[in-house]
Design brief:
The complex is a heterodimer of chains A (about 450) and B (about 450). Chain A is of the alpha+beta class and about 450 residues long. Chain A is about 25% helix and about 40% strand. In chain A, strand 11 (about 300-305) and strand 12 (about 310) form a beta hairpin. The chains are: A alpha+beta (about 450), B alpha+beta (about 450).
Chain lengths: ~450, ~450
């Protein structure tokens, strides 16, 4: 950062916590977030814009009796006013199930700040996007191509009345592209992007262009999917999308409120025995890496499903108290960085084992239905038919439906090879039903 | 503020520059289950400067209002790095105007205790409606946003954009089966809009309980009648987004596809986007480029009649700006968005639409929808079987999908009962969500719609 704001205001936030106590709060915490970002965007294959952003925000939470309230803002000159407002609001505020923020615990150091990422210049971002655009144009000059890059440096500070005073610094880059091919009323849309805290080999314009061109090549020919139940191949990013439903299921708040279908199922086999999910906030430079949660509780590596058996729910301080459980250091009761354990056969072998099925690259409207129950029913935005272990064309006007807990409850095959972040394998599942409109 | 913004633009070195500063104060309260879950308030201020030189844009987002001139200068420097062609922004008559909100009952004058008591009462209705109701989510929120805008063409406006919202949902559970129902009301004019919703709240709770016993709808192609809420989502998602010219203006094949004059449905089909409707949550006096809001026919008599534009898309497509460049908050640049989008009334009665369906599905209300140009998916909140022209058994998991061009042509009945309700949620695009919009429709009947199952 040009100036470390977090360091300069640390004393002020500590004073703010003391001030909240003097005003009648039993406990208080104040967080601050400051970031600076540089961006560039290509539209229709040409450099369209570049710019920057600096933003600051703070959040206050206070407990008064067994009630709490939150206020937030971005003007530090209003901090005292917002503290007073929080204390006033807490008197009629939401139910609190804890009495105090815990003292500072043993924090595992996680790398999230990279000087290499800081060295990424605007010019390099523009050049890299141009390289992606050129590579895709070389495949088809009539495509509508958008690309973009971003570099962010941020700092955060958390001060609690429990004695936590934690500063964090993070860098992050994002690089991606999105293309559209239009032929009459037939359109193919695909995109691919990457993000990471360290500027390493993941920052690879060729990999992004190759992935997109690969989609376009596979999608040249249109074919029909076979209606009914069939095997479905999920590349890592699609598997990650389905895992989002599992994240909702293990959300400790939803469990405590009896809204999750997984409530009461701890220790039961919920998923296929091939499925082990671990939340690892300590993976250096991962986008979800974190040392503490929003209450100052140290994060930890956490097994969510072990060989299909539900092993734990994600709790923050308040939700854990509500559920009568121990807090697990999960901000918002959500996993930070889910990792699915690999299987023992390669993705090529999994594909080769499919006689007739579909490959889902992207779904439209996933998560819009009764997603907490695991139900999904979506249009296949981009998908392919697999025949005799090979992709034979793109499917259109095709819908898949099922329930995530059923689909992943049995007959799941996972690949030994993982995505570039080492988090998600490829998967083959049974149990989705496929329907389509007649062409 | 006018002097500050005008002064900041005075030395702008660009073909065009603008600056927008916003303040927003908001309150959010919610019950979830038996307890109050959320009590929040916030105050934010900040802005964005944009400049265009030789067709390239520089965009700078800031929180501090110190040094606004430097923010504009930085945007101009960024634009100069990018621009290599020509700036083509449509002309709009400059305006100088201030549009304070006129609230019939101002939510800022209502005490927190009263707001909490309101949602506490609704929450009790949800939790007491049926033994199968496990949880609830009843929320109240309000926001008062003030937009200050100036550009190098001499436009300056201030517009206050208030919004109050009450959203309520019920979660029913039977073993591992969980079903939800929800509804909401929103207003840009009065706190009274969130009062007296007891019947609507009870209906939501009873529906969540009933959905636990409802069978899934059978997958496959059906004749479907959409109720006005879902018809509105359909036209917003499936066609409205296709009409947004930022998807078209530099995409020759899409321009060919969406050319004005192209047949888009039966002759009774008229689709409108109208930001001038009196003070709805989707309405505005000026868009976030200073263009007055307008009424645009997207489809007229079954023929594509127009697109929605920003200054740039209108400039490059030689069209008139329509007042649809909108930003969701201070940190976002304006992009082409809808306002109040609806299908106009047809000539049939609702009864006539149903009478001609031997077997079909009546799809009601919405969970949400998503479109990817020609393909769409939208989720009904619930549905009923239609048998011999009569509304029958409640069914769940009614998710409709299709190709927009084929589906518009498959509309074979439009009733005369257009309804547009102001609700929560909103539209998402380009990382900006939820943008306040409304959408509406009469009952419409569509043949051969694919429902997943």
């Amino acid at each position: 950062m040009r100036n470390s704001l977090a360091e300069s205001v640390q004393r002020r936030l500590q004073d703010g916590v003391s001030s909240a106590r003097r005003l009648g709060a039993a406990a208080a915490k104040i967080s601050l977030h400051h970031d600076e970002r540089t961006t560039c965007g290509f539209e229709s294959g040409r450099l369209k814009d570049t710019g920057g952003r600096e933003s600051l925000s703070f959040g206050i939470e206070v407990l008064v009796g067994r009630r709490k309230a939150n206020t937030s803002g971005n003007r530090l000159d209003q901090l005292d006013t917002m503290i007073e407002h929080a204390v006033s609001l807490a008197k009629v505020g939401s139910a609190a199930h804890f009495d105090a923020y815990p003292p500072a615990g043993d924090v595992t150091a996680v790398k999230t700040h990279s000087p290499k990422t800081l060295g990424l210049t605007r010019e390099q971002m523009i050049e890299t996007c141009q390289r992606i655009v050129d590579a895709i144009k070389a495949y088809d000059s009539e495509l509508w191509i958008n690309a973009g890059a971003e570099r962010v440096e941020s700092e955060s500070l958390l001060v609690t009345s429990g004695g936590v005073c934690h500063t964090g610094a993070r860098t992050r880059w994002r690089l991606g592209a999105f293309v559209q091919r239009t032929e009459g009323t037939d359109m193919v849309l695909t995109g691919y992007d990457r993000s990471w805290c360290d500027l390493n080999e993941f920052f690879d314009p060729d990999a992004i262009a190759e992935r997109i061109v690969g989609d376009l090549r596979w999608g040249q020919t249109i074919t029909d999917a076979t209606p009914g139940k069939c095997k479905v191949y999920l590349p890592p990013e699609t598997l990650a999308m389905f895992c989002h439903v599992l994240q909702l299921g293990v959300n400790g708040r939803s469990v405590a409120k009896s809204e999750s279908p997984l409530a009461g199922r701890l220790g039961q086999r919920v998923l296929d025995a091939s499925v082990t999910l671990v939340d690892d906030p300590h993976q250096d430079y991962a986008s979800g890496a974190a040392e503490i949660d929003g209450d100052g509780i140290p994060t930890r590596r956490f097994t969510v499903f072990d060989k299909g058996v539900l092993r734990g729910f994600c709790y923050d301080l308040d939700s854990a108290a509500l559920a009568g459980a121990e807090p697990t250091g999960h901000r918002g009761c959500r996993p930070y960085n889910l990792i699915v354990a690999p299987g023992d056969r390669s993705s090529e072998q999994l594909m080769a084992g499919i006689d007739d099925g579909i490959y889902i690259r992207h779904l439209i409207g996933f998560g819009q239905g009764n997603v907490i129950n695991g139900d999904f029913s979506c249009n296949v935005g981009l998908g392919y038919r697999i025949r005799n272990g090979r992709i034979v064309g793109r499917v259109k006007n095709t819908m898949v439906a099922g329930n995530v807990y059923d689909v992943f409850g049995d007959g799941v095959q996972l690949s030994s090879d993982l995505d570039h972040e080492g988090r998600f394998p490829h998967a083959v599942v049974d149990g989705m039903s496929v329907s389509r409109a007649e062409r | 503020m006018r002097d500050e913004l005008t002064s900041a633009l005075a030395n702008a070195r660009a073909d065009y520059a603008e600056i927008r500063v916003e303040t927003e104060e908001s309150t959010s309260l919610a019950y979830r289950g038996a307890e109050m879950e959320r009590a929040r308030s916030s105050t934010f201020r900040g802005g964005i400067a944009r400049a265009c030189t030789k067709g390239g844009w520089g965009v700078v987002v800031f929180d501090s209002l110190d040094g606004l001139g430097e923010q504009v200068a930085e945007a101009c420097r960024c634009a100069a790095l990018v621009g290599k062609e020509s700036t083509e922004l449509a002309d709009v008559e400059p305006v100088v105007d201030e549009r304070p909100a006129t609230l019939e009952r101002d939510f800022r004058g209502v005490g927190l205790d009263e707001k909490i008591e309101l949602i506490r009462g609704y929450n009790e209705i949800v939790l007491g409606a049926d033994p199968s109701i496990e949880s609830s989510n009843v929320g109240y929120s309000d926001a008062f946003r003030t937009v200050y805008f100036a550009n190098t063409r001499g436009t300056y406006f201030m517009e206050e954009r208030p919004r109050v919202l009450c959203a309520f949902s019920a979660t029913g559970r039977d073993g591992a089966l969980v079903q939800r129902a929800h509804d909401s009301r929103a207003s840009a004019t009065t706190y009274a809009a969130v009062l007296g919703l007891e019947d609507a709240v009870l209906e939501v709770a009873r529906r969540a309980a009933a959905l636990l016993k409802a069978p899934k709808v059978e997958g496959g192609a059906h004749t479907v009648i959409l109720d006005p809420a879902l018809g509105g989502v359909f036209i917003h998602e499936a066609f409205g987004h296709l009409s947004e010219a930022d998807f078209l203006y530099e995409n020759p094949k899409m321009r060919d596809l969406m050319v004005v004059g192209r047949a888009m449905g039966g002759k009774d089909l008229n689709v409108v986007d109208d930001g001038t409707i009196d003070r709805t949550i989707g309405s505005l006096s000026y868009d976030d480029e200073g263009t007055p809001a307008g009424k645009t026919y997207l489809v007229r008599g079954g023929v594509l009649a127009g697109h929605l534009h920003s200054l740039e898309t209108a400039g490059k497509m030689r069209a008139k700006p329509t007042g649809n460049a909108r930003a969701i908050r201070r940190e976002h640049p304006p992009i082409v968005r809808m306002t109040n989008t609806y299908i106009e009334n047809g000539r049939a009665t609702r009864q006539e639409l149903f009478a001609e369906v031997d077997r079909g599905v009546y799809a009601c209300d919405m969970y949400g929808g998503q479109t990817e140009f020609e393909q769409f998916t939208f989720s009904a909140a619930y549905g009923y079987r239609i048998e011999n022209g009569q509304v029958g058994e409640l069914v769940r998991d009614v998710v409709l999908t299709g190709n927009v061009f084929e589906t518009l042509n498959a509309i074979d009945g439009i009733a005369n009962d257009l309804t547009q309700r102001q609700r929560g949620g909103g539209c998402g695009k380009g990382g900006q969500a939820p943008l306040p919009i409304t959408c509406g429709s009469p009952h419409i009947r569509i043949r051969n719609v694919v429902i997943g199952g």
